[in-house]
Write a structure and sequence with these properties.
Length: about 350
């Protein structure tokens, strides 16, 4: 497909604007897509602020539900008119890293995070998806596009953190940060049979949703040190595992390390920018206590995310409460970006729908 399109781009640090570009061309295994709904991510805001390095004239966005417009000659599973969910991470599945089980790092460290990072993102009239058969997920008929965007980059990292932390039946799990990702980690921990779920957050909407998704306790970090509040709940016993889904890298890692038991795992899915600092303190013999921190990109791909889509399709996972603000049309996209920048207390996730 030839022609021009419009996109909402990062022009420079702290500067965004609309740009006109050529419609992207697709590979034989790729697909050209037209957005039906896009969601705004905290990472988009961090990018505009320059926390992932300078980007110029780069179209933003990495969370979209879309209609297939055109497919490459080698695509077998999709055709024009199909409705699909597009993961935020779209690997090259034949890469060595993918074959070794780390598809999110195909083409180098975090190399599968293409949209808005290495190529133009999804805040545009059209965008391309590489290896469509392996990366795209069919949109379930009973899921609205605005709700399905939660499978792009909210549900997967939340569930990933729980797998990384090794949450098992009866475990006491601590979840630091209960934005959209942390709330999905709460839901996943509950599904996995955690015995006690302790979450950390400040905003009332997050506290209420954490309870809805299965939290037994919600700690407010503005009311005192997290570690002390956790110890009060557990009777002085460390937790079995920790999911780091929010906060700063420095404070969240230190807290997680202090709270988890020897032999326990910390699963982290927070993005760490070049300007962030990480330190681990407050523990005796911190280098000798058999505690493991695993920081990973979210799991992705049709096999993995297709199963998470099934949880949504069957009603076992209700993501609708995550979508707190819905906008309509490209003209309202800047407003959605702005509200994610401002992050009022009533916000979880803003989505723009193209009716």
């Amino acid at each position: 497909m030839e022609g021009k399109m419009r996109g909402y781009a990062m022009m420079d640090v702290n500067k965004t604007d609309w740009v006109e570009k050529d419609i992207p061309q697709i590979s034989p295994m790729g697909a050209l897509l037209k957005p039906m709904a896009v969601a705004i991510c905290t990472t988009d805001i961090k990018m505009v602020k320059g926390m992932f390095g300078p980007k110029h004239n780069r179209i933003l966005g990495h969370e979209a539900v879309a209609e297939v417009i055109e497919v490459g000659s080698m695509v077998k599973l999709y055709k024009p008119g199909d409705k699909v969910i597009v993961p935020a991470v779209v690997p090259e599945w034949g890469a060595i890293a993918s074959q070794e089980g780390y598809a999110q790092h195909s083409n180098g460290e975090n190399g599968a995070w293409l949209y808005s990072n290495l190529i133009d993102g999804v805040f545009s009239d059209y965008f391309a998806c590489p290896e469509a058969d392996a990366n795209l997920i069919p949109l379930p008929e009973n899921i609205k596009p605005e709700h399905a965007t939660m499978l792009c980059d909210m549900v997967p990292p939340g569930f990933t953190s729980v797998e990384l932390a090794g949450v098992n039946f009866g475990d006491t799990v601590l979840i630091i940060g209960i934005g959209g990702v942390g709330l999905m980690a709460t839901a996943a921990s509950y599904m996995r049979g955690a015995g006690t779920i302790i979450t950390v957050g400040r905003r009332q909407i997050s506290k209420d949703l954490a309870k809805k998704y299965g939290a037994d306790y919600v700690i407010d970090y503005t009311k005192g040190e997290i570690y002390e509040q956790v110890m009060e709940i557990t009777g002085g016993k460390p937790v079995d595992c920790v999911c780091v889904c929010g906060g700063t890298a420095e404070s969240s890692y230190t807290t997680a390390f202090r709270c988890v038991k020897p032999g326990g795992k910390i699963g982290s899915v927070i993005s760490i920018a070049a300007t962030d600092k990480i330190s681990i303190s407050g523990a005796i013999n911190a280098g000798m206590n058999d505690k493991m921190i695993i920081g990973a990109g979210m799991y992705t791909g049709r096999a993995k995310l297709g199963k998470l889509a099934k949880l949504m399709e069957t009603g076992r996972l209700d993501v609708k409460p995550l979508v707190t603000h819905v906008y309509h049309g490209w003209d309202e996209l800047p407003d959605a970006v702005q509200i994610m920048t401002d992050k009022p207390d009533v916000l979880i996730k803003p989505v723009v729908v193209f009716d």
